[in-house]
Amino acid sequence: MTPEPGGRPHRTALDRRTVTRVLLQLVTAAALAVNAYVHADLASVYDRVGQQISQGTLFRLEAAVASLAALLVLLFGRRRLVWAFAFLVSVSAVGAVLLYRYVNVGTLGPLPNMYEPVWWPSKSASAIAEAVGAVAALGGFLITRPPRSASARGGAPRGDEVDGVGG
Question: Which range marks the domain in which residue 133 is found?
């Protein structure tokens, strides 16, 4: 850090990184929230009696996982694992909607055939939000520094951690 006039350290780089991270947290969480809302809203439309796992059940599961990812990104956005989770949720959702839009996969074990070769407003909004969420989560992952080890922080091992053995 370079000193400012008056002797205070100049923290522009840290502040830019923090602002960028917070913006990515908000964009990612909003995108995941759109994903969750659309899936929760449409779930009842896709309930089918007699299926082991209905598309409605899968939609409810997607809504729950996307909601959890949004909450984690907002609360723990300084952790790379949270960003990785948000990225996986978003990219798997956009991958699934594109796959089932363009390929008739058929049933896969207990999973129903979810092929729908059409776009409509809520499906499009969800796909766009999922893509935006994936890109934003990847950005958050890339700008978040991995945690430093005890040796990098200058901390020596405690007496009960000598030779990697805790006790």
Answer: 17-146
**Structural domain includes residue 117:** yes
Which two three-digit tokens encode residue 101? 């839009």
Q: Is residue 64 part of a domain?
A: yes
| Ramachandran bin of 50, using left for φ above 0, alpha for ψ from -120 to 50, beta for the remaining angles | left
In the structure, how many helices (H) and strands (E) does the chain have?
5, 0
Quick one: which H or E segment has residue 73?
Answer: helix 55-75
* C-beta separation of 35 from 67 below 8 A: no
Structural domain contains residue 3: no
Q: How many CB atoms neighbour CB 114 within 10 A?
A: 19
pLDDT per residue over 38-61, tens digit each? 999 999 999 987 777 999 999 999
**pLDDT of amino acid 163:** 47
Structural domain count, the chain: 1
| Residue position matching structure tokens 């990515």 | 24
C-alpha–C-alpha distance, residues 72 and 67, integer Å? 9
Task: Please indicate, yes or no, whether the overall pTM of this predicted structure exceeds 0.90.
Answer: no
**Lookup: tokens for 35:** 């994903």
Residue 34 token pair: 């759109």
d(CA 48, CA 62): 17
**Secondary structure of residue 49 in the 3-state scheme:** coil
